Amino acid sequence: MAASTPLLKDELDIVIPTIRNLDFLEMWRPFFQPYHLIIVQDGDPSKTIRVPEGFDYELYNRNDINKILGPKASCISFKDSACRCFGYMVSKKKYIFTIDDDCFVAKNPSGKDINALEQHIKNLLSPSSPFFFNTLYDPYREGADFVRGYPFSLREGVSTAVSHGLWLNIPDYDAPTQLVKPRERNTRYVDAVMTIPKGTLFPMCGMNLAFDRELIGPAMYFGLMGDGQPIGRYDDMWAGWCIKVICDHLGLGVKTGLPYIWHSKASNPFVNLKKEYKGIYWQEELIPFFQSVILPKDCTTVQKCYIEISKQVKAKLGKVDDYFIKLADAMVTWIEAWDELNPLGTTGRLLNGTTK
């Protein structure tokens, strides 16, 4: 379907973290040019990043982040793609799509270019079904429906907060898997979108991801990673575990599957191992922690849920390593910074009925 006006043109920002010139945007021009871009420049702020002509964008480097957030800038990672979450915070739109600069346009099995953004929007604008699994996957897609035996009381579904896309070519593997399978490429195009069931965690990858900022934005914090931190490459994972627990609590949906992008280059597995080493070890305790998190009934907003998770992180994971005490504090700082920059929420509604 070729829409005359791009879907959600004035309601969606594209957030891109980068350390290099954004030549990759040329390939995405037919799909991205109508939208506003927020570019978060990582690394050396004195370096000039070139953006191709004709794109509407704002660019923030580390100096800008420090200027805007002041002392609270400590919650934004440096020398790690986790810095992208600053873009989520300064956006004023209802929806966010985030993509890495080594992700190109993929082709579907019939050879047609995939408009990843359009598919993410379709995912977000249709309901999710987290309470009962539909064996034909997404029942709201054209040509599908609820199967026999699916309770009618649940067919209305719930609002979709997150759309998690996948990758052809270089799969999103951890360092040990990369080392064992250096030449493995993903060529399997599975034409499916599914809701991740309530109570099930998943590994969220941030390189092809869209979400409703109004429904889940304050929980999309990519943690403390990279420079000066004992861990990297767990930024999107951390956000994914937090958002899933909160979506389950608030009755929101998370979808995974289409759209695919073409992931062009594999990162160095030895560098990755150094970044991931502690995470691989810690995640054996992190997963049971998130599986056991219970949020009280009075946690009725994303912010309240997130602050409650930060308290539990400090109390329980603080025993695993001091890093988690620092991370729990950064989670609180992130929420304070979010509320300062978004005092009216994202739709002009007053937070907690008071103005700041």
UniProtKB/TrEMBL annotation:
Location of this chain's protein in the cell: Golgi apparatus
Positions glycosylated per UniProt: 148
Pfam families named among the record's database cross-references: RGP
Superkingdom as given in the UniProt entry: Eukaryota
Catalytic reaction(s) noted: UDP-beta-L-arabinofuranose = UDP-beta-L-arabinopyranose
Record-level Gene Ontology MF annotations: UDP-arabinopyranose mutase activity
Enzyme Commission number: 5.4.99.30
GO biological process: cell wall organization; UDP-L-arabinose metabolic process
Site-annotated residues for Required for activity: 148, 155
InterPro entries (alphabetical): Nucleotide-diphossugar_trans, RGP, RGP_fam
Keywords of the record: Cell wall biogenesis/degradation, Glycoprotein, Golgi apparatus, Isomerase
Signal peptide stretch: none
Similarity comment: family membership: Belongs to the RGP family.
Purpose of the protein: Probable UDP-L-arabinose mutase involved in the biosynthesis of cell wall non-cellulosic polysaccharides.
Protein name: UDP-arabinopyranose mutase
Gene: UAM1
